[in-house]
Fold each of these.
Amino acid sequence: MDMDNPTLCNELDRVEKLDLSNRAHFKSLMTYFSFNFRTVSFWLNSCVFPEEMQHYPQRLSANSWHLAENAVGFSGTNDNHRIRPKLVNQFFPNSQPLSLTSRYEDFVWQDSLGTNGKMVGVINEHTIKCMEFELGSGFKSIIETIEEKQYVHAVIDSGAVLVGFDNAVVAQKILETVGTRFQGVLFPDNSMEPVEWKILEHSGRILPKSVSPVLDHNAFAIFDEPRCRGSDLKLSNDAVAILTLGTGMCKDKFMQAAGRMRKLGRGQRLIILGSSDLMKEVHEGVVTPKEVLEWTIRNTASSNTASIVPWANQGLFYCTTKGKPEQSISDENSSLRDNYSGSFDHIPISEAVSIAKAYHMSRGGWNFSPDNSLARLVDGIMRQSQRFGSPLVRAVVGMDEECERELELEREAEEEEEIEIPSMKATEESEWDISAALQCRSIMDIPSKACVMTIADYLRDHVEPKSLTNIKWSGHVMGTKNFFRTVTNSDGSVPTIMNHYLRPVKEYIRFRSGETLFISGREVDMLLCAIWEMPTTLKPDISLQHL
């Protein structure tokens, strides 16, 4: 506080004198206390932390099985029906002959059993092509595709490529791209709660879909990711939609997204769009709709497998707490020892479910007779886990389910592929007068024998993925040939891709111009010798720095 201002000191020396309604007074408080560490610390410890970080020793737990009691619902896909609560059963029509009055109804049900195969065939036959874009350029690629393929009527962003962009901004850009081919752009306004479909017209006017004079089939449609399920728009009979792919996309999400084209196969078609990295995961080589469908099925199988133990654990918890609300109360373990000290191991899924059953039985004091409905439910859980999980292995760890999920996500992100790296020969470094660098004021003054090149140029020619070139690398950061070229093939040629042989950056030269030059370890030793041999009356124009 300004001690030379006795009036201000007198105003702020006691809390009883504070008057927040006085603007000048309030401004003085802001000036002296807004960045005061003791003030901030007092506020956090006395007001924020006690209110926002309350911790209770126990919690009341429930899960999807509790919600599924007496539930009846509808889903357009059935890929995950085996990991839904067993209280909700997938309905399969009875194939036995029925009475004459219900034979037509039975025919309709039987016909619905072929829906999966029919949709697979429709997508496979009525997808124009599969396209890819470089990572980080999804929005740009969508706009370029709309501009190039003038028959595109919609974007179905099931891959969340447009996440982070405001839908109104996307709509404006698309409207500028399509010009007069459409009377407007139909998009979900995510700035409102609840989200409302609106139409952006060429005049700049934005109206709710229900009152706009522009009809659905006369507008370009944008389905953001949340609207890729359940949304129903009446697009033109010959509409073509760009459908984006996302990492780990399962078949049900893909099918639901394709289903936004209500007349797919009857005039309407798709263009599938995914990042180059994702397309390599789908298939090495030219990607077709068939490979995309197979990829989504593999993802679905992996997702269902990973869900067997959580599904069984939740079901067993439901069975052992049904009618016993006191058993739904569990201790809240928040210490690091409780959450992370358990051992980590890989065991069969069926064994993991058996361990979970023993835990819940002992915890809930199980005493039901075998013919009890809950006992039969437990038996059903165990049989299904044994049937679908016996040949599979799952990693288990002694911790609560939240921390286990956290670690499983980390393990998925850190999953590595074992690759046998070809043996290489260390490159013999080329000679150049590195002592000349001591008097260089810019990289441009470095002798040409050093073969200096930019980071961007090297990444473009020798490093994958090629999407790295989308980053705006500084043109002032370069490296010598000796720094970049670390190995050669047995025949002396330079490998095309150097991902496994990149040299870590340890030392570099900094020029007065602000430019940076990466050099090899041998070049560093030679440069140090040159610096030590310099006359004391001279000073180098560069600085050698170490990371």
Amino acid sequence: DGFPHKKTIVPPRDFNLAERASCTLPLLISSHVVFLLLHLGRSGSNCCFSSTESVSSTFICSLRVETKGNPVKLLYPSPPSHHRLIRTSTRTHHPSATNQFQKVYTQCTMRICSLALAAFLSAGSTTAFVAPKTFQVAAPRSAPLFSLAPPAPSGRSKEGRSDDEIQAELTSGKVLEGGKVIDFESIKGPSRAEKALQEAKDEILKSGQKYVPADSGILGINADVVAEVGHELGAFASDEEIQSCAQYLRSLAAPGFFEKQQVNGTVNGSTTTTFTASDKAKFDELLLKAYYESGEVTGAFAKTFYMGTQLLPPAPRGAIWAIYVWCRRTDEIVDAPRDSDEEMLKDLASWEMRLENLWKYGAVEDVYDLCLLDVLVKYPRLPITPFMDMIRGMLMDVPSLGQDRYETFDELHLYCYRVAGTVGLMSLPVFGCAEGYDDIIAKEPALSLGVAFQLTNILRDVGEDARDRGRVYLPQEDLKRFGVTEEQIFAQRVDENYVNMMKFQIARARMYYERARRGVFMLAPESRLPVQSSLDAYGRILDKIEENGYDSLTTRAYVDKWEKLSIIPFSWYRTLDVSRQLPLPGDKRIPSLEEAH
């Protein structure tokens, strides 16, 4: 453009999308530098926007900044929807353009983040944020994880305590770093719900016949789920194909991993013992379709969670989708409209028995069971306990059997563990641990993240839960402490007492987010960004509640898609060891485990 000494950052024409993503972080950092220059030295700075050529259908807008006679030209990728805004600012070379620059700067930053995410969606492996690696759970890691912390003493955890001491804290519920450790595994209290579930299971076993749900479709995939996804689900394979594929998957497990079961005179329901290359290709295609639909269900019902999974390599990504679909189906079984609880309890008892048979025998009944079986074969350390506990968590929400009030935070803690902390335990074997860590050490942060997510849901939906479901999840002891009444919650009346109570609850939730953040460094490198980005995006809901004046009775806190995408580069930085010593503005420094002790 006849502008002397131009410095241009632009991807060449033959860059693929993954390679372009590697340019986004330098561009993002450059944009912040330019933004600060204009803020700090506005009197000596001018800016100019111009449009230029298309690079592989991605429109490039150039930002030319002149600061005391030293011009720099930055090129930002921008999709066609942004062209009009850029063109209206073309060739505006005047200090008054700064305000327009700030507006476009913010939007361009978000576009850059979306490009980075798009790279992950379109590339099987990329070095844009994390090094590609094929993750094998059973295989030991040969490459050490570089850390600023000194090596741990032999035989002890990196927290300075033995594994036995860590385990004792986890199982006893000892106070650790300002909050109780949430570990309620296998706790079965004398609740009406659990007694009713056991009675329904005994009735099915006593009948001696296979239980058939009243709804002849796929259990847990009801009309509401189909409508949300937009098409029929699980209808692409016959029962014979499903059982043959299950037999193939069982053959991939270690000898003795599954017990033998006689079904209709055959072992585990199939007569096939050998499989041809054609058979394997057919099974792989069937599984691919099942995983794809699992991803669709995840994306339809859990958008923030789904965004995080898109940053995972293909194998663990599919595994997390399969786990989510199981959780979704459990929720649908409990919450689906019914004439009586008796039918729901029989469906749920049958569902629990199916789970037990899958872990014991590798038995399946539909294509989504196949996905979970495949996950179990690939990640043999996956425990059944959190799945069983989640079923009990779902029962806690049944109006006539569970509870719609929680007297203390300990009671709410149990609920949060069962419906959300369990997901952390389900996911941990899939995510894997970094060198020097194991599931015992990483367990507490995984539980903390699940509880943080569930507390966030509760704080966001206080008004909705009261109005639509007649539920008040906030501990009664906290309401009394701050002078908040149920009457004002149902009347959706926000006052100073309510605001103070919400400040307290948000601070508690953030404590669990901080504890969970420490656990990100315990994960395998390829799993850190997905977890951190989900943590950051969900944590932003708390910020939105604050921005709404702590009104979660009449206003629902919401983080839009572009804002979630704009968080990803910052999440990436937080996964680096250097972020422990040089945290982002507003972040707390995360000490090494030795320092924490």
Amino acid sequence: DRARFSVPDGLSVEWDGAAAILTFTKKPLHLCILGRARIKVTSGEIEILGHRLDNSTKAVEIESPGWTSAITIDSQKVDTTLKVNSIRQQETERTFQILNPLQDSVRPTMIPSSWKSAIDAVLEDLTKSSNKPDEESERTKTRNARIFVCGAKHVGKSTCIRYAVNRLLSSSSFPAVALLDCDTGQPEMSPPGMLTLTIITTPLLSPPHHHMVMGEGSLISTYHTEACFYGHTTSKADPSLFLQCINKLLESYVHVVADKHGGDESKLPLLINTDGWVKGMGFEILSAALDSIQPNHVIQLLGEVRSKLFDLTEVLKDKATRLHKAHSYRNSSVIHDSSISVAPVAAVQSSMYRSLRLCTYFLGSPGIWDRIEFGQHGIADYDCEIGTTLASMKPYAVPMDNIQYGTIRGVDKPSDLGSEDMVLDALNASIVGLCQSEIGDSSQGPNNTCISCVGLGLIRSIDRDRRFFYILTPVPFATLQSVNVIVGGSIQIPTECLYRGIYSESFYYMSCDGISVGIGGEFMKSRNTLMRKSSSL
């Protein structure tokens, strides 16, 4: 609200309908944006999450929802002027708020100084490599542009990845960046359950559900350069398959560099996003991934507690890899600028983020979140709008006899689960991978091997008499022509995707996490958030 906005010293604001013209008369100055807006710099220079804009750069769109840290504009020069426009069909309706982090109750996205130092060192090294004569850089062509970002859960890896992508794209040396996304639970550019390689040419200025690849509704890229269906949301489900997928995506990156850049990786830097499992077997998987990828830069985000600390010294010993240790986002975002009062952000569970991504993906657009709230308690879809929308969408009718199908544990081998009816029961009303078999003989399906994937599908129903699958997916029809395998995994369908009308309250084959508590057995889980008596005094 305009009346509530407290204009900081050094800023003038002029409203023009649903747009605002901001003029910074001093630097540095921080300003937060909540909502959705299009920003164009007319004079001077600003930085948004590592992406630098001046009057020569085109306008960018940002998405800054209230349940996460607010997008922050940092002025870089005195007398900087920019115009902030609303993004809505009705031009008179404002879709953003301007907030002063010095006074308003908001948590700004403040990049830790240790992150800036790490990316500065990476950029200096990559720029130096890309500017070398061909004969000097020949020996470093295969490993001189791979940046590996790792850390425990909730240390800011996703924010760090977006910041690194934006910093690289802002450099004149790198018009594009490759992102190898190994986080199957909280991926940056895809729905859960996939490992992907994506070429990015546009800055990431929104949460993952807003800019992930989802067909024609995608804002950043409409397709992945390569993708593998993993079928789980954690690497511990099948470490061997997980590492196979990483190696396959790495090979694809090498082929792209060879075809388009003559094998010179410094022309297309590779960023690697990882999950937050860094203890026990998770550390072994992380170490194996480092051995396969052989990065020349590792950015390690360190948490505050022992469970979020791990030592990479032995793993990186005898490797030509520079290790950059940086603070976690939560630990350092409030200490480098003591003048800014940071409002707390309610914790959102990982499962809720997964539901947000999956719902957005199958709807094919993030537009529905203008009407449905998301926050600490997940998706507040009281009128079942998501389920109703999906129920009204036309599915693809896929002949069962023209494709292979099964679960991630055995494709086209019903005997592994029993009868074919049991396989179809497992696939009905489930999330599946839409895959492309690389095996010449279509009668032989892959079993526990990495398989290329064009996206996810939601099996709405199965007609066993006419032998048809009815599948909802945002993947374009032209891309679906190459799909010859449907693979089921363990990705839980969000309840919000189901139509809960008066005749549809009993759902088809579903599992509920935690249902075994008190009445059966389940894997023991760590409770690292519990306060001990000694620490609570």
Amino acid sequence: ISHFSSKTRGGEDPPTHPHPLYHIYARSNLRPVASSFDLRFPLTQHNITMADEAPPAAAPAPAAAGTGAKPEKKEKKAPPKDLVIPPKKPKLSKAERRALQEAQRAAKAAGGGGKKGGGGGGAGKGGKKKVDVHKGEAGSGGAGGGSSRKAAAAAAAPAVDPSMDKSLPSFSHLQQYRDPKHFEEEFSGISLGASNSVQNFHPAVLSLGMQYASGTIRGGNARAKAMLRTFQQVIRDYEPPAPSSSSSSSSRGGGKEDDVRHDLDHRIIKPAFQYWTTKCRPHSVSMGNAFTFLKLAVASLDRDMSVEEVKEILVDTIDAYIHERIDIADEAICKHGSSKIVDGDVILTYGCSSVVEVLLTDAAQEKGADTFRVIVVDSRPLLEGRALVARLADAGIECTYILLNALSYVMMREVTKVFLGAAALMSDGSVLSRVGTACVALMARSNNIPVLVCCETYKISNRVQLESITVNELGNPDDVISARCAMNGAASTAADGKQIDSVLGNWRDMPNLKVLSLLYDLTPSEFVSGIVTEMGILPATSVAVLLREMNPQDTNTAFMGSM
């Protein structure tokens, strides 16, 4: 091609060339941009130009700065004269937002919550002034909206738990601990008996809520059993509502108001569960799964059943669930777990797990109490391991009691196996349990000691959790700074018999001090050697398979979380 380029410029006839574009190029007025070109790059419109074609005209240069010419600017349209632009709403802190919500709830309850028009647009008589005061954030756009919100927050500030504004920002999304001492009316049910109240609960529901909030009932199994037993009592005392005139004049079969299943679900079961979880304490995974089972049991009832038949079937169904999914499951777990205990074992456990306690006592009765030894690791503020050590010692088992800070000294020298309890199992095999469990599992993993987690299958959650911050529960911050055991209230005493007060007793008055009381942590599946369930001992990676086999109808949603 280089030879072709030089010959054509001299006026000679170009020689024959095998390339198909050679003759086309020689007979036309095309000329290459460069002196030579490579056949690897085909001739296109971008690398050739016509000989008679003038180069494109250059773009007009911008006007010189000295000429004084300025580009025209588009004039902004003025807003209409009748348009009112509201001012920006002031931002409220988290404590002020909570105080505002509490004030709105109190105003709704005091002014008769049945006046639905008063909350939205002030249509109800007598409640218009209260609505205007507490509805500043959703006002009509006046400048007084922000001031009314501030006034409402300041007026309701004394009703807020003092510990709410002392939470850490990383855990501010969690439901804050509500001390029953600061919300006596809500927990006692006095305000719930007012006219036009949202719900009048059964006394058993209020009693259980107080026990949840005060920590009298702890543990996944204990909380789920107490909830189901309370529902049994409520169902036994259930009376259907009297049929209204509209429903009596309707066609035979009635509507939802005549359906016992609908009334039980929406008036009895669901409001009670919401009261426990929102007012008292967030529900555990075991409570959530048991509640879901009860709702399905109510929905599967025949519509034509009488009220007495519905009561009998639901009570028997709850008994069967407790017996099969908790009691028999614990017996099977004990059988599978005790098979791993051999003579001379030193078993370590953490806290107080009911299923681990039954496993150890059954193994002592079957193999002899002198065949193995137990080390119970405990931690503040609950110190739950004290009760476990006392019961194991009464069963004749040799025990050692240590705190969590001494774990490394006994783990590397004596321990041969670790048995732990669980509050929930995630679908990826991670274990949610009392705070400190991850430390124990990590230390065992570093010393090549097997870790067996004992957990019933009804505690399996379809969620996937990677850390302990997104989903967790906050406890009473006073338990952390207290010098006494938060479990039984046994105060520390000095030599003269006087009670020792905590140095941080006035921590709420210290502006630079925040107290965190987390109840759970997450143990990754890599630190778990096996999961002991009623189905057998499984690897942590098989939890998702077990969940899919137990709930085949939820296969498509097995890995979709909700909390």
